């Protein structure tokens, strides 16, 4: 029998074993951590868009630190 870890890895297999309510709770916790680390829901400007205006003022980061980049730790 194929184990879930063989298909998706240990981290995702553990996630799939959670109930929907446990996943919801864990997602809320992860969002709080993301925001505490300086994450934002504001999209980054799309410089390839025909509507991109390089002269439009961009939003400043409230705490003065550089923005965060999302890095994936597992396969997609």
Strand fraction equals under 5%
Radius of gyration, in Å, reads 18 Å
Assign the structural class, choosing from mainly alpha, mainly beta, alpha/beta, alpha+beta, or little secondary structure.
mainly alpha
Describe the global form. elongated
Termini separation (Å)? 24 Å
Helical proportion, percent range: 25-40%
Mean pLDDT rating = 81
Characterize the biggest β-sheet.
none
Quickly count the helices: 3
H-E string: HHH
Number of strands: 0
Low-confidence stretches: none
Provide structural commentary:
The protein has 76 residues and is an all-alpha fold. The chain has a domain at 1-41 and 68-76. It has helices at residues 4-8, 10-17, 20-36. It is elongated, with a radius of gyration of 18 Å. The two termini are 24 Å apart. 0% of the residues are buried.
List keywords for this structure.
mainly alpha, 3 helices, 0% strand, 76 residues, 39% helix
Task: Give a brief rundown of this model.
The protein is mainly α and 76 residues long. Helices cover 39% and strands 0% of the residues.
Could you give the topology of this structure?
Layout: H1 4-8, H2 10-17, H3 20-36
């Amino acid at each position: 029998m194929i184990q879930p870890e063989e298909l998706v890895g240990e981290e995702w297999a553990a996630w799939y074993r959670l109930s929907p309510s446990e996943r919801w709770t864990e997602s809320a916790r992860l969002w709080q951590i993301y925001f505490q680390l300086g994450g934002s829901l504001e999209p980054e400007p799309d410089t390839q868009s025909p509507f991109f205006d390089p002269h439009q003022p961009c939003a400043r980061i409230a705490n003065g630190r550089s923005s965060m980049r999302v890095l994936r730790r597992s396969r997609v």
